[in-house]
Request: fold
Amino acid sequence: MKNITKQTKTRLEKFKELYSSAVIAAEANRERLCRHMDQYLGSDEIDGSTERASVVRNITYEVIESEINADIPMPKVDTSCYSTLRDQNARAIERLSTALRSRLPFEELNDRDERYTYIYGGSVFYIEWDASQTDNAGEGSVRVHLLSPLDFIPQPSIESVEDMEYCFLHFTTTRGELVTKYGISEEKLSLAECEYLADVDDPLGDAVAIIVTFYKDEMGQVGKFVFSGDLALCDIPNYYKRKLTVCHECGKNAKFCACEKPKPENIDLELEKITLDDGRTVEIPYYVPKSFPIVIRKNTLSDMTLLGGSDCERIRPQQQAINKVESRILQKLLRAGVTPIMPEGTAITLSNAVFGQIIKTRPGESIDSYGKIDTTPDISQDIKEADRLYDQAKRVLGISDALQGLDATTSESGYARQLKIARASSRLETKKRMKHLAYCKIYEIIFKHYLAFADEPRRFAYRDTYGRMHFTEFNRYDFIERDKYGKYYYDDSYLFTVDNNADAQYQSEALWEINLNNLERGTLGDKTSPTTLMRYWQLQDKAHFPYARENVEFFQDIVNREGGIGEEEIPSEAKTQINQSKGNK
Reply:
């Protein structure tokens, strides 16, 4: 819903001017980013030349695709100052983040994020609270967007989002969306900025560009301003503060306004009333986040840049050189051929088809009178040079044959293979840490949004270490603390990391093998005990072993009975499942 104040025109001119200056300052970087994407897509451009490569061997695409990691980091939260309540709250944050990690389209976001990061040197996440989303738990939820760095226009000369006073996000939408989402009248749509020219019948096109501006005021509060061309769409100073929409005419809540022509406006709410466990009612300031809802994932750290180092830029010399070599190989082969030598007056039938020439000898002539000149070139050195450049590009990025799966010449277990790949990818550890750092910030912003706006407790399902399903809730009122002066506040001092031991780092087959080895070595307990077998199948169920859940339920029923059973009483179907898991080694 739009919220236009009397200062809208002044703000619009101010932010349009800042945006224009930021676009000009970012133009050189934008050209570089576009060149990186063209290289990834297989551009035939040769630097410093107007000629084009006749052959493009796209090693950039190949090595970047080898780096793609489908793992989505699992959240891990610790307390900055331990107490039983804070530790419980930390677990609640973990479960909230884990549930949203599964619910939100992180698989799709991660797929694009991986490629953006390696191609451009970084990617941009935008997290917002969407009050229009409702579910059984309550109103509102977070939405996570992934933007190309081309759609993020930073404050010039500032290298960190945390240090920026303003920044801009570029989105493409339709004119109809401006009407439904922002309440823009049809006659004002002509003021919007057209994204691109359409056909002759619709010269203005239906797609329009909108610019979302985040800024900090003189008090350090975050504000949001949205515009398209000369059209102001949304103006929200103190963006994170709680708002109440009232009618300017009658002063009532907009939901209960009975005015013929209501004039809705938003007012900031400072305090909320809560009831403590002892029945007392107190007033406490609403929680207000302080940072922009934007996270930049960097590929690798690079001096004096907002993004990290681009893999395309690092291997561009090898890509350029290999295109030249491959083009030279093609030119040699196209000029190659076998030219026949024959006596004068020889009758010959010519044809342009391959192997279509026929030489006819005269009676009495010997075949020895004929010869040939073979102009087929030797391209072995060119091929060696191309392969050398390819290996050089892989070494620059730390890509090994093991990581690409090109050295699988011997039979080995899945777990051993995984360890070999992990050792081979040690040079990529920095990129992995940068991804973890970005997700730590994402989970922290998600937590702070729920702390600020989720009035109703949110319930989530999770499995404990024994594989049992439980329900827990995230309640922002559990985070209320009292300072030494007796004032109540929301405690957000939690430390966000990622769980390096999460199951996502291993293949399921490797986990099955580890669990089976632990059972056979007795590290889980007596392997003839139903309790141990139940624990084993709980671990296999967590690792998604087929039909493990049925065995968990079976042994759970046995354990719940009085007494125990010996090995001779273990059901045959359970023994069969154990033998099947041994066969997966």
Q: What stands out?
A: DSSP finds 16 helices and 23 strands in the chain.
